[in-house]
Amino acid sequence: MRAARLGLGLLGLAVVGYGLAGLSTDPGTRPLNHLLFLATVLIGHDFVVLPAAIALGALAARTLPAWARAPVHAGLFASAVVSLVALPFVIGAGRRPDDPSALPLNYARGLTLVLALIWMVAAIVAARRRVAARTAPSRRDGPP
User: What pTM was estimated for this model as a whole?
Assistant: First the structure.
């Protein structure tokens, strides 16, 4: 296991080195813009997204019954990932008026449908867990 981790770490460093070499030798890049973007992403993640996720997860863990916690946490996680991936499409980043075939769909509607599907599955799983919790024998009951 240790050798696999070491190998993957070295492979990751090689890919980073390749990317940095390409960034430094390409005449069309602006390294300062890249650094500003990376700093913005890092600050946004560490001071906005991560505390919000921790607070929302803690609130759900404290307020929800045991049978609903796992489905709600999974729904929150899936919703966050899907929303993060879909956000550039929803806001139309890269859409140009002179190219109507770029980003031609209603991505907000698609995101809404996917989120509705995620929460419908979470609700079904939670309902099944609640029924299973009600029909399971109580721990206070001794052996049959």
Answer: 0.70
Give the span between the Cα atoms of 107 and 113, in whole angstroms.
Answer: 10
Q: How far apart are CA 50 and CA 84, in angstroms?
A: 13
- The 10 Å CB-count burial string (b at 16+, else e) for 16-45 is eeeeeeeeeeeeeeeeeeeeeeeeeeeeee
Kindly give the confidence (pLDDT) of every residue in the chain, 144 residues in length, as a single tens digit, with 9 standing for 90 and above. Answer: 899 999 999 999 999 999 889 888 888 888 888 889 889 999 999 999 899 999 999 999 999 999 999 999 999 999 999 999 999 899 988 788 888 888 888 999 999 999 999 999 999 999 999 999 998 776 655 555
Where in the chain are the domains?
30-135
Q: Which residue from 140, 134, 141, 138 is spatially nearest to 67, judged by alpha carbons?
A: 134
Give the other-Cβ count within 10 Å of 129's Cβ.
17
* Cβ pair 72, 60 in contact under 8 A: yes
